[in-house]
Amino acid sequence: MQTDLQNSDKNFSIKPKVLIFGGGPAGLRAAWVLAPFCDVHLYEKESMPGRKFLVAGKGGLNLSHYPPPGGMASVYSPPGFMDAVLNKFSLEALLDWMNELGVGVFTGSSGKIFPEKGITPRMVLQAITTSIEERGCTMHTGCSLQSIDSSNSCLIFQNDVRVNLSADYVVVALGGASWPQTGSDGKWTDIFRSHGIKTLPFRPSNCGVNVSWPDNFVLHHAGKPLKNICLSCDEKSSTGEVLITRYGLEGYALYPLIPSLRKMEEERRPLQLKVDLKPVNNAEQLVSRLGLKRAESGNYRQAFGLQPQSMALAKLLTGKNAFENPLLFAGAIKSLALPVLSLRPVEEAISSVGGLALEEVNSDLSLKKLPEVFAAGEMLNWDAPTGGWLIHGCFATGNYVALSILSRLGIISGV
Fold first, then answer.
1. Among 20, 197, 377, 401, which is least packed by CB within 10 angstroms?
2. CA distances from 260 to 243, 335, 388 (A)
3. Boundary-marking domain end, from 311, 343, 375
């Protein structure tokens, strides 16, 4: 449940000062929670906050996702890290917040939570930023953080002018390394390494993969989808649709398997996906559909219900002997071994992992070596699939660091 902040009777003659660096979902939520109780200043490197928020919303803004049977926290990794965070900012809490902001939402057939039709991502962002300012937060743009010292003094460049700032608490929500054109370039790691704080290289998540397609396959099938398939990697599987691209594959059925492929890459194992083109049928059922027809492409396509691009992929990944034996071919299309060259670059990924190592933060998300500095959002080394989980996780970590600061101040009792 969301902590009730409205009934606090804690008063300060001078409000504690909090500096927030980063105007993405994590920084915005932290500012919203803190603003009524603290002198909050939010600093954004770009000309406006929320640029990545707007880019993420181009294909439909997924604000959250209806929890699976295992609960919302089960979607996030590493296991356990987000449990307390999500307990303080559940799906119900996010929906209540959107309602307070005047943003109507609906749940799609896949369980994703969207703004109501007619409400654009820019309108959602405007509702959030307007509410933050109305609650007392001062927003600054064109400001890049250069350093933080152990006494919470911060050096920034504001439109190329050096400015020194100081505060009671600092929140860093500086983003990962995906979509650097929005400002998330990951260059902030030097700030923390200077304090001996461990940072990890950024790696892509929720991204495409490189496959060595033959030129003829690319010529005829790039840009076409593989629909209603099942992909698997190690023990993980995912159903849905992917898109054949000139470089390989992209799409929502692929993204949940990226952590497994990334692990293979880290362990220097050959990368491979298994493709089941007919996940709802077994081999015997498929062969029975073929009947006495000859083993040739047209008959297979018709009997097995394969799209031309699916048939082309099956022929590409099976040998002549299997193709000429209906039972072998039917079995093959349920477990096609697709070699993968590599993951696409982190700059193209929907999200990234890496950044601040989790062993460097306390349970309240403050830094062990800078106890008045709190970290939130994608700059922490956690992961989640796309489809609403990422943005919810960012909002939730921003919410959590805000509550942690209010707890430190005695405004609320514990987090």
1. 197
2. 19, 17, 20
3. 343
Q: Which residue, of 343, 371, 386, is where some domain finishes?
A: 343
Take residue 50 and report the two structure tokens written for it.
């929320």
Tokens of 190: 């030097």
CA atoms within 13 A on the CB side of 232: 14
Tokens for 270?
A: 């050959």
Q: What is the pLDDT of residue 264?
A: 96
Residue 294 or residue 236, greater confidence: 236
Residue 315, domain extent: 209-343
State how far Cα 406 lies from the chain centre.
27
Tell me the pLDDT tens digit for each residue of 220-232: 999 999 999 999 9
Token digits of residue 361: 């933060």
What is the rounded average pLDDT of the residues 160-172? 96
Lowest mean pLDDT among 54-63, 103-112, 212-221: 54-63
Residues 96 and 226 in one domain: no
367 - beta bridge partners?
361
- Whether 389 is in a domain gets the answer yes
Mean pLDDT value of segment 258-265: 96
**Which residues in 102-113 are b (16+ Cβ under 10 Å) and which e?**
ebebeeeeeebb
Three-state SS at 284: helix
Query: Same domain, yes or no, for 223 and 196?
Result: no
Are 165 and 244 part of one and the same domain?
Answer: no
Q: What are phi and psi of 164, to 5 degrees?
A: -100, 135
User: In whole angstroms, what is the distance from residue 154 CA to residue 62 CA?
Assistant: 34
Overall domain count for the chain = 2
The number of beta carbons lying within 10 Å of the beta carbon of residue 36 is 16
Q: Are residues 173 and 311 in the same domain?
A: no
pLDDT, mean over the chain: 94
pLDDT value, residue 10: 58
360: domain CATH number? Answer: 3.50.50.60
Residue 22 to residue 182: CA distance in whole angstroms = 12
Closest by CA position to 365, among listed 194, 149, 171? 171
Q: What are phi and psi of 349, to 5 degrees?
A: -70, 155
- The answer to whether the CB of 183 falls within 8 A of the CB of 142 is no
Place of tokens 């009947």: 291
Residue 195 Cα distances to 198, 221, 382, angstroms: 9, 51, 22
Q: Residues 154, 296: one domain?
A: no
* Alpha-carbon distance values, 188 to 147, 173, 306, 399 (Å): 9, 10, 49, 22
pTM over 0.70: yes
Asked whether the bond before 69 is cis by omega within 30 degrees of 0, the reply is: no
Looking at the chain, the whole-number percentage of residues with pLDDT higher than 70 is: 97
